[in-house]
C-alpha cells in the first residue's frame, strides 16, 4: 500500500503550529509528524511537497443538507455521493448528513438510505460520520425554511423507530425543547448516545434550562430560528450564551450572523464551545436559480438562499473552507482557533474525537492542504487523496 509523505508543510497540531513539518501517512492513519526535511524514499513512497503551505485536520461539518446538486433527504446513494464529493473539494473530510422536516415515511426512508451510505465503502468524498435529524419536532413559530406541515410534538415511540433504523449513526437530534414530551425524548436520545440540540425553537430561558437538565447539550445555527436575546427574557439565544453545557453552532457566511455576533459567541464559548457549520443545501456550488428544499420553493441569488417569498433564509451555499476563512477574517481568530472550531470540536462533540479532528500519530489521515490564503489545494480522507494530487476519478462536481 502507498505510503504518503507530506513534506515542507506548516502543520496545525494539538501542540500548536509545527513549521516545517513532515507528515507520514500509512494504512489510512498518521504514523508520524516530525521536522525531518530530507526524505529517503522507498519504492512505495509518494512524496507531496506542500511548498510551505498549511496542512490542517480535515473539517467536520455537523450540519449539512447537501451540495453540488446532491441532497441527503433523497434516498439515493448517488445523491449522497455527489454531496460528499462536492464538500470534499472544500476541505470537508467528515460530515453528519442532515435531514429536514418531512412526513414520517420520508424521514424514515432518508434515515435508512443514509445509514446504508454511511456503511458503504467511501467512493471518494467526505465520509458520512452520522445522521442529524433536524425536525420534525420543531416550533412553527420559528420554522425558518422548515416545512410547517409536518411539524409535531416529540413522539417517544417514533423516536425508538428512528433509533432502530439509524443504529449507531444517529448522532444529532434537533428539537424545540418547549414542545410536549420533549424532555422524555431528550433523555432517551442522550441515553442512546445522541447529541440533542435546540433549534427552530421559541423556548424561554427557563425552558431551555430545564431541557439542559434532561440532557440537551447543543444549539444549532445560533441566533437563527430561535427566540432572540432580550434583557428581560434571554430566550434560546441567551441560554446558548449563558449555559456552559451548551455548545453553539455558527454559520459564518456573512449572511446569517453579523460579525459582531460571531465574535460575541466566540468570546463567551471559546474554540471548545463553538462549532463552525455550513447548513449547506443541494444548491451549494450550483448556479443561481430556483430550487426545492423539503417541498418548499427557494431561490438562490448571489449565493444567498431564501424562501421564494423572501420571508426567511433557506440554509446556505457555504462551504467549510470559506467558513474557516471568514472566521479568521471576521472573528479575528488564528488559524489554530478556526481549525479547532471546524475540526476538533465537532469531531469530539459526536464521539469521533479519538480518531478525527486532530493531526496526531494514530489519528485517521484526514488532512487538508491549504495555500497561504487558506484555499484548498488538496483533501485526503483516511489516507486517500479525494481531491488534488493522487486523487482518483469519480463524478464531476462543480
Automatic annotation (TrEMBL):
Source species: Thermaerobacter composti
Pfam families the UniProt entry points to: Amidohydro_1
GO molecular function, one term: N-acetylglucosamine-6-phosphate deacetylase activity
Keywords in alphabetical order: Carbohydrate metabolism, Hydrolase, Metal-binding
Family named by the database record: Belongs to the metallo-dependent hydrolases superfamily. NagA family.
Name of the molecule in the record: N-acetylglucosamine-6-phosphate deacetylase
Gene that encodes the chain: nagA
Domain of life: Bacteria
Start and end residues of each Amidohydrolase-related domain: 54-386
Amino acid at each position: 500500500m502507498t505510503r504518503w509523505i507530506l513534506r515542507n508543510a506548516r502543520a496545525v497540531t494539538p501542540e500548536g503550529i509545527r513549521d516545517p513539518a513532515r507528515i507520514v501517512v500509512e494504512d489510512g492513519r498518521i504514523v508520524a509528524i516530525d521536522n525531518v526535511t530530507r526524505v529517503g524514499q522507498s519504492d512505495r513512497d509518494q512524496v507531496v511537497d506542500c511548498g510551505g503551505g498549511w496542512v490542517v485536520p480535515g473539517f467536520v461539518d455537523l450540519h449539512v443538507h447537501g451540495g453540488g446538486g446532491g441532497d441527503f433527504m433523497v434516498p439515493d446513494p448517488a445523491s449522497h455521493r455527489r454531496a460528499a464529493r462536492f464538500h470534499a473539494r472544500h476541505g470537508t473530510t467528515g460530515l453528519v448528513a442532515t435531514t429536514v422536516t418531512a412526513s414520517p415515511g420520508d424521514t424514515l426512508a432518508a434515515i435508512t438510505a443514509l445509514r446504508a451510505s454511511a456503511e458503504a465503502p467511501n467512493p471518494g468524498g467526505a465520509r458520512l460520520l452520522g445522521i442529524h435529524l433536524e425536525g420534525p419536532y420543531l416550533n412553527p413559530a420559528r420554522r425558518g425554511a422548515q416545512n410547517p406541515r409536518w411539524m409535531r410534538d416529540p413522539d417517544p415511540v417514533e423516536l425508538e423507530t428512528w433509533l432502530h433504523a439509524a443504529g449507531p449513526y444517529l448522532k444529532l437530534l434537533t428539537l424545540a425543547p418547549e414542545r410536549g414530551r420533549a424532555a422524555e425524548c431528550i433523555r432517551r436520545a442522550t441515553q442512546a448516545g445522541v447529541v440533542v440540540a435546540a433549534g427552530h425553537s421559541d423556548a424561554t430561558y427557563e425552558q431551555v434550562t430545564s431541557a439542559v437538565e434532561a440532557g440537551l447539550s447543543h444549539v444549532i445555527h445560533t441566533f437563527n430560528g430561535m427566540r432572540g436575546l432580550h434583557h428581560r427574557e434571554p430566550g434560546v439565544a441567551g441560554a446558548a450564551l449563558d449555559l456552559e453545557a451548551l455548545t453553539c453552532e455558527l454559520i459564518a457566511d456573512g449572511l446569517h450572523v453579523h460579525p459582531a455576533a460571531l465574535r460575541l459567541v466566540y468570546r463567551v464559548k471559546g474554540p471548545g464551545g463553538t462549532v463552525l457549520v455550513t447548513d449547506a443545501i443541494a444548491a451549494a456550488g450550483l448556479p443561481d436559480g430556483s430550487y426545492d428544499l423539503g417541498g418548499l420553493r427557494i431561490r438562490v441569488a448571489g449565493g444567498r438562499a431564501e424562501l421564494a417569498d423572501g420571508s426567511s433564509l433557506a440554509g446556505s451555499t457555504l462551504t467549510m473552507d470559506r467558513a474557516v476563512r471568514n472566521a479568521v477574517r471576521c472573528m479575528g481568530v488564528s488559524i489554530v482557533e478556526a481549525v479547532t472550531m471546524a475540526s476538533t470540536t465537532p469531531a469530539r462533540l459526536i464521539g469521533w474525537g479519538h480518531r478525527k479532528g486532530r493531526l496526531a500519530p494514530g489519528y485517521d489521515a484526514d488532512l487538508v492542504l491549504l495555500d497561504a490564503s487558506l484555499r484548498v489545494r488538496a483533501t485526503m480522507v483516511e489516507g486517500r487523496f479525494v481531491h488534488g494530487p493522487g486523487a482518483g476519478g469519480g463524478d464531476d462536481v462543480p
